[in-house]
Design brief:
PB1-like domain-containing protein, single chain, alpha+beta, two-stranded antiparallel ribbon, five-stranded mixed β-sheet, PB1-like_dom_pln, 137 residues, 9 strands
Length: 137
């Protein structure tokens, strides 16, 4: 596993996978975290990034998201679904002195727009990305 010490050459990317996006409260729970500080993500295209992540995780990914540095998870979560969005991720990743977090959606439902209607959700239920609901006690 990559060490979590910055080396000054590459952005530190925290890959969060095998977890679940929760709608209320908006979060990503469970799964595995791995920090890369020795991978040159800036030399990759979006397609190469997807291939790298899938080979590392040994599983297919439907969607990727990253959280902009210094923003809340709800407000800073952005999709990475093409070369343009990947370039924005790289710009943000290399513009921070810390770690930038990437989140994997293995199911493919997506969370785009979830934060827009978070206030309209029923507080008694927690929706997960797979469409199931958990009753909170």
């Amino acid at each position: 596993m990559a060490q979590s010490e910055p080396n000054g050459l590459f952005a530190m990317v925290e890959l969060n996978y095998q977890g679940v996006f929760n709608r209320n409260p908006f979060s990503y729970t469970g799964g595995v975290k791995t920090i890369f500080n020795d991978v040159d993500f800036s030399s990759m295209t979006y397609s190469e990034f997807v291939t790298f992540c899938e080979r590392f995780m040994h599983e297919e990914c439907k969607k990727f998201y990253y959280c902009e540095p210094d923003m809340s998870f709800m407000e800073g979560l952005n999709p990475i679904s093409d070369d343009v969005e990947y370039s924005a991720f790289i710009f943000d990743a290399y513009g921070t002195d810390g770690v930038i977090s990437v989140y994997v959606d293995h199911i493919g439902v997506g969370v785009d727009g979830w934060h827009d209607d978070e206030d309209n959700d029923d507080d008694e239920h927690e929706s997960c990305i797979d469409g199931h609901q958990m009753i909170l006690s």
